[in-house]
Design a protein that fits this description.
alpha/beta, Rossmann fold, 5 helices, 11 strands
Length: 211
């Protein structure tokens, strides 16, 4: 679902490059046309082309966009992964590379679960990068090692272990965790921050912070 709240939309307007997954270009264009002044960033449209009509591509080309279309026909990975892989190729050599994924949740539950699960795969494949998936309601972050995360007192926090058997330690939450391995996705949900930050240590983790 395309974001609607200003804190998330501001992430889109302030970047140098936007990568759209095929037909998501239509949602981007609707947003782009509401912006005054128009943002100046490169737009790349990538995917297998199954949801990108020629008319939509022509429509985008008539806008004052720096537009590139890349068709990737292989079907081992979905269009989101093709976009992330392209982003990582573009960021090759950059330290502390960060990829922010918008609009990956909301329309179909199976797509939502699959896309959220992919975050942990991206973190494993690209260990020197960080990945974030914001929505209108909150954000998912990847953790692979030790990470201190900004928060506020009372903020709702959930932790998901994407591979069972790895110990997790968390300080700064209402329900601390000390060297515990989760066997089920729900085991680390519905926690709460005590202050301005908390620290988490573990492998293959996703952390959700409520907005």
């Amino acid at each position: 679902m395309f974001p609607t709240v200003p804190p998330v939309l501001s992430l889109l307007s302030g970047v140098d490059k936007v990568i759209c997954c095929d037909g998501a270009l239509a949602k981007y264009l609707r947003w782009y046309r509401t912006q005054m002044p128009r943002p100046h960033h490169e737009v790349v449209v990538i995917g297998d082309g199954d949801s990108l009509s020629p008319s939509l591509l022509r429509e985008a080309q008539h806008e004052s966009l720096e537009l590139t279309h890349i068709q990737v026909d292989e079907q081992e990975f979905n269009d989101l992964s093709k976009a992330v892989f392209y982003a990582m190729e573009s960021l090759a050599g950059e330290e502390n590379a960060k990829v922010t994924i918008l609009g990956a949740t909301g329309l179909r539950e199976d797509h939502t679960l699959g896309n959220i699960g992919l975050l942990a795969y991206y973190q494993q494949r690209f260990p020197n990068a960080t990945f974030e998936m914001p929505s209108d309601y909150g954000s998912f972050y990847t953790v692979n090692g030790i990470r201190t995360m900004a928060s506020y007192a009372g903020q709702q926090v959930s932790i998901f272990s994407m591979q069972a058997g790895f110990p997790i330690t968390v300080s700064g939450l209402r329900y601390p965790i000390e060297g515990r391995a989760f066997d089920w996705l729900w085991e680390g949900t519905l926690n709460e921050a005590l202050g301005e930050s908390f620290t988490i240590e573990g492998q293959h983790l996703l952390v959700y912070l409520k907005r």
